[in-house]
Amino acid sequence: MYYYNFEVVLQEVPGEISLCFSISGCPLRCQGCHSPFLWKEGVGDLLNKNAFEEILNVYNNLATCVLFMGGEWYEKELIELLKLAKLKNFKTCLYTGKEEVALAILRELTWIKTGKWEQVLGGLNSITTNQKFIEVKTNKNLNYLFIKN
Ligand code: SF4
User: Fold this and answer.
1) What share of the chain is helix, strand, coil (3-state, %, to 5)?
2) Can you list the alpha helix ranges (DSSP code H) found in 1-139?
3) Is the CB of 30 under 6 A from ligand 1?
4) Which positions make up the signal peptide (predicted)?
5) Distance between Cα 97 and ligand 1 center (Å)
């Protein structure tokens, strides 16, 4: 699988410093998509096990979580990278536009964000959102962490 970009982010997973990989080839085509450059398959750099491990090694003592923006459409590769991240003591999160993902992926996640982008409903920081940020272990909805008072 290929990633369009990689950045260190602070807000997408509350309380965590996350290494965020935006995976290209998104098949969902949400209306009003904020990242249509992610639709085309094979865009960006190859994210194989070696390339991923090199990045994890650089940020080993700085970041706490690995976050994938998509990639569930490459189930086998994604699971392999999630397992590697866990082995190196990173927590794991997936942002997907789907309502659910394969159980084999879910098992490797600490958190998952589900739900398509619906412009009129807003994202996680909106009280009307259709999206959910879930702690996988407890199945608890943690959307309240994104809502500013
Ligand atoms: S899931 Fe995200 S990247 Fe894919 S079409 Fe929807 S908004 Fe765009």
Assistant:
1) 25, 25, 55
2) 49-58, 75-87, 103-106
3) yes
4) none
5) 6
| Structure confidence by residue, pLDDT tens digits, 24-54 | 999 999 888 989 999 999 999 999 999 999 9
What per-residue confidence (pLDDT) applies to 34? 87
Could you tell me which of 37, 113, 106 has the C-alpha nearest to residue 78?
Answer: 106
CATH number (domain holding residue 111): 3.20.20.70
Cα–ligand 1 centroid distance for 90 (angstroms): 25
SS3 state at 21: strand
Query: What burial letters (b/e) apply to 13-40, b meaning 16+ CB within 10 Å?
Result: beebebbbbbbbbbeeeeeebeeeebee
For ligand 1, the distance from its centroid to the CA atom of residue 79, given in whole angstroms, is 20
**Ligand 1 atom 3, closest CA:** 35
Our count of domains for the chain comes to 1
DSSP H helices, the chain, are 49-58, 75-87, 103-106
Low-confidence ranges of the chain (pLDDT < 50): none
pLDDT at 148: 81
